[in-house]
Amino acid sequence: MNLIDDLRAMLGADGVLDADEVAGRQAGIWRADRLMARALARPRSTAEVAAVLRYCHAHRQPVVTHGGLTGLVHGADTTADQLILSLERMRTIERVDPVQRVAHAQAGATLQAVQEAAEAHGLSFPLDLGGRGSATIGGNASTNAGGNRVIRYGMTRDMVLGLEAVLADGTVVSSLNALIKNNAGYDLKQLFIGTEGTLGIITRLVLRLREKPTTTNMAFAAFDSFDRIPAFLKHMDRRLGGTLSAFEVMWRSFYLLVTTPPAKGKPPVGQNHPYYVLVESQGSDRELDTRRFNAAMETALEEGLIADAAIAQSDADCHDFWSLRDDVGQIMVQGTPAIFDISLPIAEMERYTRDLDAAMTAAIGAHHLYIFGHLGDGNLHLAVPTPPADHAALRPKIEEAVYRGLAAFRGSVSAEHGIGLEKKPWLSISRSPEEIALMRTIKAALDPQGLLNPGKVF
Ligand code: ZN
Predict the structure, then answer these.
(1) Helix, strand or coil for residue 418?
(2) What pLDDT shows up at residue 284?
(3) Are residues 202 and 103 in the same domain?
(4) How far, in Å, is the centroid of ligand 1 from the Cα of 211?
(5) What is the mean pLDDT of each run of 10 residues along the chain (458 residues)?
(6) C-alpha of residue 373 to centroid of ligand 1, in Å
(7) How much distance in Å is there from the Cα of 388 to the middle of ligand 1?
(8) Distance between alpha carbon 421 and the CA centroid of its chain, in Å?
(9) Ligand 1 centroid to 338 CA: how many Å?
(10) 168 C-alpha vs ligand 1 centroid, how far in Å?
(11) How far does the centroid of ligand 1 lie from the alpha carbon of residue 325, in Å?
């Protein structure tokens, strides 16, 4: 077997990069290190993906699928003996059907391209996250990406109606359902959504689109006690008639970080409260939506649910509010961060984070713990910057503190980033031995040689 020559015979000369060319590429858009692999294949179609996998299956060649390389858990890492299958030449958005409200796309299309294609028809593909310009829709599906509007539209899983995938032996399973309701047997697409490329390679998708909201109302609210936050969430959700579209929390340490120089952000409300929430509603009638949103905020203030609030008066204000939430880069200024995306019941959050702070002090001494995230989904992001030289030594201690505390109530070690390599040692905190055994059974049935994304997840 001569891998490069054989693949070039299938994909053309420019369809394959050799090991040296692979080493010229960055390992990820947030990463400084280089890619490594035996070769990188760039198929243009499902048929070419199938040909590559049939060949790899016959020669027991391990394969790791690459999308936009925006992942955060080393889910697409490779070793020198593996083949990278990149979907970078499968970026076509094949069709938008405004009546059925679906889009058909190849898996290598970027999230942003899908969003823009939907918007051209007055529709919206509501998945949204920071890596939108690089992240691919196939990668979003294979990791079941979350993001800022899960509270209204769900995870990627809830936006995929059908898909086409190639199995480890090269079999193409075309399950391009475009119906919202279809209970005809097993929902096979779920085998490939959120399974991080370990069961098959997604090549095409049918995506559910929504009517595009045309108005946005936002506020930044401050809280003096944590128990007011879930009460405020329920209050707003009840009052907003289904238009609540984001509910993002910031602990004071994060709020101070992003509203104090060198950060460019200005504080919309005073900096002395322990908790802050950014709340957003999206609708379709500016006057009506604004009246309803402002009335809901007013009663929240009257009822003592919030200590203080600033209501966005313009699109520029909305943009500024989101910029504060998105200014996660300030954490990098402090050092090399350990970043986490955990899920837990809202009622456990205050106690958990207080215990975590204490556990971290015991484990690593003085530290900064930044907490923010999608509180409406029960999902918090934690970030602990460390001196770069000490990061490798401190990281396991920080992980231990973060994950051990979740075990008591089976919180999730990954709300939305996935397991990859990074969280593999901690999977058993969130999944029972029986669940992990069933995952292994499914893996063995679909990929008996263990060729697809080897070593990831479990
Ligand atoms: Zn997030």
Answers:
(1) coil
(2) 95
(3) yes
(4) 24
(5) 94 97 93 94 98 98 97 95 98 97 98 98 95 96 95 97 98 95 95 98 98 97 97 98 96 97 96 98 96 98 97 96 93 93 96 96 96 95 95 95 91 95 94 97 98 96
(6) 6
(7) 24
(8) 16
(9) 15
(10) 31
(11) 10
For residue 71, report the distance from its CA to the centre of ligand 1, in Å: 12
**In 3D, which of 153, 150, 147, 307 has the Cα closest to residue 219?**
307
Tokens 């032996």: give the residue: 169
| CA of residue 35 to ligand 1 center, whole Å | 25
Is residue 386 in some structural domain? yes
User: Ligand 1 mean position to 234 CA, how many Å?
Assistant: 21
Question: CA-to-CA distance for 100 and 180, rounded, in angstroms?
Answer: 9
In terms of domains, do 60 and 106 share one?
Answer: no
**How remote is the CA of residue 413 from the centroid of ligand 1, in Å?**
13
Whole-angstrom Cα distance, residue 301 to residue 298? 5
How far is the centre of ligand 1, averaged over its atoms, from the C-alpha of 324 (Å)?
Answer: 14
The domain that holds 37 is classified in CATH as 3.30.43.10
Whether 439 maps to a domain, the answer reads no
Global pTM reads 0.95
Separation of CA 329 and ligand 1 centre (Å): 14
- Rounded to the nearest angstrom, the distance between the alpha carbon of 51 and the centre of ligand 1 is 36
* Cα 369 to middle of ligand 1, angstroms: 17
Looking at residue 163, its pLDDT comes to 98
Question: What SS3 class is residue 22?
Answer: helix
- What CA dihedral angle connects 265, 267, 271 and 275, to 10 degrees? -90
Residues 219 and 173 in one domain: no
**Where residue 123 sits, what CATH number does that domain have?**
3.30.465.10
Q: Which pLDDT does position 31 carry in this prediction? A: 87
For the chain, helix (H) and strand (E) counts, in that order, are: 15, 18
Distance 148 CA to ligand 1 centre (A): 7
Query: Do residue 291 and residue 336 come from a single domain?
Result: no
Q: Is residue 190 part of a domain?
A: yes
At 83, give phi and psi (nearest 5°).
-100, 130
Closest CA to 31 of 72, 66, 65: 72
| pLDDT (0 to 100) of residue 408 | 86
d(CA 11, CA 85): 12
Amino acid at 271: Q
Q: Would you call 407 helix, strand, or coil by DSSP?
A: helix
Please report the pLDDT score of residue 409 as a whole number: 84
Number of domains, the chain: 4
Co-location of 315 and 344 in the same domain: no
CA of 72 to the centre of ligand 1 (A): 11
